[in-house]
C-alpha cells in the first residue's frame, strides 16, 4: 500500500523549470518549498500537480513539515510558483492528523497518493484517508467522512457538492485505498487502487467494485461502468475475489488501459492470482481487440500510459529481480514498437505514476543498489535510451 520510492511525474519536471534553466534545479524554489518538508523523515512526496496558474500541489506519504513556524503533518499543501506556501489554500493537517484538513484516525498518517484537476479548477485528492474536516476534533466545523477520496474547491475549502462515503475494504486482506485517479474530459473520475467497493452515503450498501470505479460529478458511483473478473480469467465460483489496480490511462476513444492484478481465496496463502494488463471499453468490459505481446518472463505490471499517438507504454517486473525491470511501448493493437528499447543499464526502475512529456520523454526513479532505498531521478528519451542531458 505504501511506497517510499521517489515519485517522478511530468508535473515534477514542470516545477523544476519554473525559474531555472531547463533541467536544472531552481535555487529560489528549492530555498523555499525545499525547506517545508523534513528531509530525513520516513515517507516522501507521493503526488505532484502543477495548476495552470503555476501553483503547485504536493501530496505526501507521512511527511511532517513546518508552515508559518508551526510543525504540521502535510498530506496536502499548495505552494506559489516561487515555492512559498500558499496560505489561501486550506487542506493540511495538525501534527497527529486529528485536527483540520485531510485526516486519518487509524495507525499512521493520511497519505495523498493521487491528485486530479477538474475543468472548473476543483481538486481531487485520493489515497489513504478517512475524510476531511475543518476545526478540531472537539469542534470539527465542516466534516466530511469520505474514505480514500475528497474534493476541494480551488481555495482548498471542502467541496460539499461532492458526496461519497468513499471506498470499502477488500473482502479479506484489508486493503482499502486509492492509488491513482484519472479525470475524464467530462470530469468523471476513474479511481484505481486496492478496494472492494464504494458507498454513496454512510448508510447505503456497498456497490462492489474490484479495484477500479468511476464516479459521477456529484461523487456517486457511475453504475454504467463495471469490470467483470471473469473477463480476465478469474474462475467462476472463486471466493473472496479482490483486485488492485495501480494505474489507469485513457485513450482518445475513451477506452481505459489498466495495470494491476486479481486474487481470490484466503488472504494467505491465496488460492490464485492473475496479473492484468488490459484495455477496457468505456463501460468497463474488456476490449478483446487489444492483445498485447508480453514476454513470458514478465510477472507483474506496475504502470501504464497512453501517448498522444495512441501508443501504450507499460512498466513491468521480472519476478523478484533486483537488477532489472521491463518497459516497452506497444502499438494500439498490442504489437511491440521496435523503436523503443529500454536502456539495460538502468536496472530496477519505478514511476508513480508514469507520465510522458510533450517531447515523449519519461521521468523514472532508479534504485542505486539492490539493498538501497535511495533512488535517483533519470529521464528516458522516446526511444528508451537514457537522456544524458538531464
What distinguishing features does this structure have?
390 residues; mainly beta; 3-stranded antiparallel sheet; 2 helices; 26 strands; globular; disordered N terminus
In short:
The protein is mostly beta strands and 390 residues long.
Describe this structure in words.
This protein has helices at 10-16, 27-32; strands spanning 44-50, 56-61, 64-67, 70-73, 76-79, 101-103, 111-117, 123-128, 131-133, 143-145, 149-152, 166-168, 177-183, 189-194, 197-199, 207-208, 212-215, 242-250, 256-264, 272-280, 300-306, 312-317, 325-330, 349-350, 362-367, 375-380. It is globular, with a radius of gyration of 20 Å. A 3-stranded antiparallel β-sheet has the order 1-2-5. The protein has a 3-stranded antiparallel β-sheet with strand order 6-9-10, with no helix packed on it. The chain is 3% helix and 35% strand. Mean pLDDT is 87; it is low at 1-18 and 93-98. With 390 residues, it is mainly β. Strand 25 and strand 26 form a beta hairpin.
